[in-house]
Amino acid sequence: MAEDLPSIAILGAGSMGGAILQGLVRSGRAPRIVVTNRTAAKAADLEGLAGVTSLALEQDPAANTTAAAGADIVLIGVKPVMVPDLLREIAPVLRPGVIVVSLAAGVTLATFASIVGDDVAVVRSMPNTPAVVGKAVTGIAAGPAASAADVALVRELFETCGVVIELAEDQIDALGTISGSGPAYVFLLIEDLTEAARGKGFSDADARLMAEQTFIGAAALLDATREDPAELRRRVTSPKGTTERAIAVLQGANLAGIFAEATDAALARSRELAAGA
């Protein structure tokens, strides 16, 4: 059986931090987690989870330093604009050997190092929203002070809620355009296929059921067989059949080019945001 993870603090257990928390709790491998939120109401929502101590800044203004001081791994889950102030607050209480993990989009490893120090192990991460159901794709990029053992530990942490890809920091934003934004692309495709079904005279309920379960089923088939998606597509596409005709229309519309253009646009916007635009 895998060993327990060391003590963890999640500072700002909002949507993404909360999703990671759920994965950790489900795994049963994190017996000591302290989480912080701004309000008592949000903190109360997380009370009662196995192994979790939930603190509210509203009730205890020192909650972040309390949580960080007792942790071997500190996840930074606050909004990107709030990260520098939070790091300045917790830097003096971080334990020797601590690993600081960023969940904040656009905040560089260099920014972290400039505040917590060059000798503190920092790992930048980008999970996506399917973390909520244990199906995340998380990209992680290690700072220069993070050892191979540190990275392996952070990988284990994120594997409690999905799969992990290790990469260089300059690829984090590109990963975000695929897996980070990707769920929205899939939901858009489901919306549009549902609309096509409505246009064929199906009721709203039947159109939704058809489109949604087709995507869910196709993804489950891909997951179960581990086949190449192109091979699974070929099996559905009989020569001179109906699917072949439909695929020809989609390929004629340069679907591959549209996805390349869309992800390029997302990457350009990511760079604008990093530059403060």
From TrEMBL:
Enzyme Commission number, as recorded: 1.5.1.2
Keyword Membrane among UniProt keywords: no
UniProt GO MF annotations: pyrroline-5-carboxylate reductase activity
Pathway assigned to this chain's UniProt record: Amino-acid biosynthesis; L-proline biosynthesis; L-proline from L-glutamate 5-semialdehyde: step 1/1
Annotated binding of NADPH, by residue: N64
Biological role stated in the UniProt entry: Catalyzes the reduction of 1-pyrroline-5-carboxylate (PCA) to L-proline.
NCBIfam families the record matches: proC
Family affiliation: Belongs to the pyrroline-5-carboxylate reductase family.
Protein name as annotated: Pyrroline-5-carboxylate reductase
Name of the gene this protein is made from: proC
